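User: Can you predict the 3D structure for this chain?
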Amino acid sequence: MTGIGPIFRKELADHFSSYRFIILFALIAMVSLITTYMVGISLREELGGVAKPKFVFLMLFTSTGPLFSLVQFVAFFGPLIGLMLGFDSINRERSSGTLSRLAAQPIYRDSIINGKFLSGVATISIILISILLVVSGLGLKLIGVVPGFEEVWRIFLYLIISIFYISFWLGISILFSIVFRGIATSALATLAIWIFFSFFVSMGASVVANAIIPLDQSTREDTEMLMRHIRIQRIVSLISPMQLYNDSTAIIIDPTRKTTRSLVLMGPLERLSSERFRRPLSLSQSIYIVIPHIISLIAITFICFGVSYAVFMKQEIRST
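Assistant: Here is the predicted structure, written as structure tokens:
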């Protein structure tokens, strides 16, 4: 892939020098620090004078602040990073006439799309690593607890999953930047996709579940029908990458969670037998629970970029 290095460095420099990146990074960093500070102060007051529980450091990421936890914030607003980095990556070059001149250079054509995607992934990684390091440092100062070895590994896996999650949205934005020649059109399309997966998929899951198994008084009293209703709703909701990400990170970053289900019905004997499993899950057990979600998230990221790659390679590049 001759030429991918210069394109990668050029795109990376463009990202870091743009006002849009500086504003977006400053906003995300500010919200993350405020959320972590509020959560850290609350944890320090609640844990003052008592023995610190295990995995208390991970509570910085899972505890809800004034509005949301840090994990919830990344799940909901993280896609905006990928969308902002890629919605004009190709059509901006095309409209300014630099894409045809770039393709005329002695470089492989696929180096253009590969360099742009890899530079976006590198930018996303730098943003997330910077925020996690600052948040961890602030958490150390506030609660005075050093994370254990397993907690560090859980945070590292959370970082990797988050990078793939936001990279999926980067691939979506690059795809629309290739398909649509207008920058405003690609920006609106990316926002529409984000809104659809963020809000309408969950609403559609409820509608589909109610259409197949209506949730009336008889259904609520029938445990089997109620569980089938919830199962259908969850299957439909897994269409959204946000749901895949939420399920994956909820188990990885919170060892006390033992299932991705939001509702678990148990009888007396089941509840008695579950007493044996009160201890937090090990890291390997947590990974085993959500490995299908993680694989699905990684797969759709590569598929999305693969579609962008194929569409770009088939398009005609000429000056306009």
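Residues 110-143 form the longest helix (34 residues). Residues 4-314 form one domain.
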